[in-house]
Write a structure and sequence with these properties.
The complex is a heterodimer of chains A (223) and B (113). Chain A is of the alpha/beta class. In chain A, 39% of the residues lie in helices and 22% in strands. In chain A, strand 3, helix 3 and strand 4 form a beta-alpha-beta unit. In chain A, helix 2 runs parallel beside helix 3 and helix 2 crosses helix 9. By secondary structure, chain B is an alpha+beta fold. Chain B has one domain: hypothetical protein PF0899 fold. Chain B is built from three helices and six strands; from the N terminus they run H-E-H-E-E-E-H-E-E. In chain B, helix 1 crosses helix 2. The mean pLDDT of chain B is 95. Classes of the chains: A alpha/beta (223), B alpha+beta (113). At the A-B interface, strand 1 of A face helix 1 and strand 6 of B. Strand 1 of chain A pairs antiparallel with strand 6 of chain B, so a sheet runs across the interface.
Chain lengths: 223, 113
């Protein structure tokens, strides 16, 4: 008869990733490079928001973008064509999020020494990216008006881990039952410290407030 | 897709533990899965079967999930209540100043070799 031996492990599957993420953050701090992890659902306007924001910041900061998707390189090309900043495409090979190790592999292809800000556009998904620390210095997410103001109740962890929530597509507010004040209330229920900025990436409204926030965070990180 | 990603992390950690203990084949992996961890145990075991059988160390290895209850503590009145039934609002005093105490675990409890 086979004898069975039990080996106790008691280890969270997030533990190794958290160690990797902290060490990556330490390296970025030493280099004076700020990494922003930008998350959202697919179609919330991440890429359009980035194009607008980079337009406002590219004379003040040296910026690069890493686009993470399951497939294709349309986002990386769009950023490069529209803004002229360096952008690289990461493929997650079917994975629904990026972890610290994948982020590090991506950063290996970015010339960090000449940069102030790297923006990581995470895979469009409100669940898994919130669970895996990428090693970024700040987390931000975009919630777009058509998605509804109740998303913070349905995806609590995403709103809990974000320092900043952008509410995008405010130009279509008159056509949707989206309650901006309720949305703020639900976000702050989960995360009282989260900053909330309503924007419209299409018209540019509010994007300057986001650019200003980013500029301040980068300056703080470097000092 | 979410569960498959998690399976890859489990495989990585089990491989490492097996190496540390000089184990050549693992019979069972026992997981602790919290009720509000966003993992569906049935999907996890399905993904596990597909991925584990590609590894010599884990061929035929069973994945067992212990489901752990989710409990929330109320900062206002100190009561503890089941999270899934009542969510963020304390059923005793109505406060929304509450914090999840347990129930979001995704951890490898033990392996049988």
């Amino acid at each position: 008869m086979d004898s069975v031996k039990v080996i106790e492990i008691k280890k969270s599957i997030f533990e190794s990733n958290e160690i990797d993420a902290d060490s990556l953050r330490g390296e970025l701090k030493a280099k004076g490079v700020f990494l922003l992890n930008l998350m959202s659902s697919p179609g919330s306007g991440k890429t359009t928001t980035l194009v607008r924001t980079i337009g406002l910041l590219k004379d003040k900061l040296r910026i690069a973008v890493m686009e993470a998707d399951i497939d294709s390189d349309v986002d990386a090309l769009k950023i490069k064509e529209a803004t002229g900043v360096a952008s690289i495409q990461l493929h997650t090979g079917g994975m629904c999020h990026l972890d610290a190790e994948m982020t590090r592999q991506g950063l290996d292809n970015v010339p960090l020494d000449g940069l102030d800000l790297v923006i990581l556009e995470n895979v469009g998904n409100l669940v898994c990216p919130a669970e895996f620390d990428t090693g970024a210095c700040c987390n931000a997410m975009i919630l777009s008006v058509p998605e509804g103001h109740d998303k913070p109740l349905k995806y609590p962890l995403m709103f809990q881990v974000c320092d900043l929530v952008l509410i995008n597509k405010t130009d279509v507010l008159p056509y949707f039952d989206f309650d901006l004040e309720k949305c703020r209330e639900y976000i702050h229920l989960r995360n009282p410290k989260a900053r909330v900025i309503p924007i419209c990436a299409k018209t540019g409204e509010g994007v300057d407030a986001f650019a200003q926030w980013l500029l301040e965070e980068v300056t703080k990180w470097k000092n | 897709m979410h569960e498959l990603g998690i399976v890859f992390y489990i495989i990585r950690d089990v491989k490492e533990a097996a190496r540390e203990h000089g184990v050549e084949h693992v019979k069972t992996v026992v997981m602790n899965i919290g009720e509000v961890s966003t993992v569906v145990p049935e999907y996890l075991t399905d993904c596990w079967r597909w991925a584990a059988d590609k590894e010599d160390l884990l061929r035929g290895c069973e994945l067992r999930c212990n489901l752990l209850p989710a409990l929330t503590t109320c900062n206002a009145c100190g009561a503890q209540y089941p999270t899934v039934q009542h969510g963020i609002q304390c059923p005793h005093c109505g406060s929304k100043d509450t914090v999840l105490k347990c129930g979001n675990e995704i951890e490898i409890k033990e392996i049988e070799v």
